[in-house]
Amino acid sequence: MLAIGAFVLLEGNGRITFATGKPWLFYSFTPMAKKSEKLNVLIVEDSPVDQKMITGMLRNSGFGIFEFKICSSLRDSFVQLKKEKFDVVLLDLNLKDSKGLDSLKRIKKKYPDVPIVVHTGAYEDALGLKAVSFGAQDYLIKGKYQSYVLSKSLFYAVERKKVELELQTTLQRLKDTQSQLIQVEKLNVVGELASGIAHEVKNPLATILSGVELLKVRYHTEDKQLNAVLDALKLSAQKANHIIKDLLDFASLSRLKTRNEDLHLIIEQSLLLTEHQCRKRGIVVIKRFAKNFPKIKVDRNRIEQVFVDLILNAILSMRDHGELTISTGVQRLSENDLTKQPQKLSSLSMGDQVVVVDFDDTGTGIPAKHMDKIFDPFFTTRRSKGGVGLGLSVARTIMLNHGGLIYLENLFPKGTRARLIFESGSPANPIRFFSTQRQ
Description:
By secondary structure, the chain is α/β, with parallel strands linked by helices.
């Protein structure tokens, strides 16, 4: 199985190279096995005569060393594959409990990464070829091969499977990259539209706000109905102005003014800005800040904006008297963190040392049907309450512009975690926390 545009290069030393047309995407293997190379083979064959013939060929092979186990049924093969790791499976397609390509399909479905060489009857070339098209690495026809061909086929199957898995990985990376480029282009278009609309609306809104203030000052009245109308006009205009500010922020996120900052101080400032909302809802804030926490290079205002948005989201997701726990630490980036990010746009890799900030709430969590959409621009479940749907989209863009990551996940038994991951210039140590602080 080769990617589009791939070619095969046969070298004079017997080495085979598969290339995908890109200078950095090459896969190669040397088919000739050394006598010291060893394969662990699972033989799935119910004929005692064929079992004896195959094992005799493997024992006397001069093409590598073979260890093997024999199963007489497909069911037994599943038991063995679960108990032990095998390099390759030699699979008969005429078993008592499974016939034809169904055997191949069933074993591939349960163990997709195991190379398979199918063993067909004397006049079943067509079945063997069809098995290869269904994912087998090779096929052998009973009675038409010798020890050398059998041994070579098993080694080839292992190498072919490696190439197949590498090509699948590369194809997935290409798909991810394509998705990322589409997402970036969508964000650019939305940003341009948002900027244009925001500038067109901002000036009329400023005029409306000034007019309302002028009316309230010049025509001071005891008329409660008139005052209520003016207050409603002012509140609506301020709300619209807030939305315009978000749109302008969204359109200009790529411009950062970074310097070394203490994230703990930025968190404290963000909590001061949201203190009224916390007190109003009776939210308890628990701070678990790591010791010897390094300063990192960030745009203070942008990161404060992210912190405030995440705190407000947590408050809105909780009933009164909930808990918000903010934790910080330095650690190595895990595979779990990489797989949970919404888009693989960051340059961070597994094992990199990173600074982590977690916002854990005791709210209702995020419905599974919304999890893939939460970072999309203008997606919100609070539209009827004035939500615009730019908060998390802006937060993600800010984090990516800092070379970092952001993702959200549901906690058990309830609540949500928003994790921010920043690049760190200091050695990664196990997370150690100060005594828990509540406010």
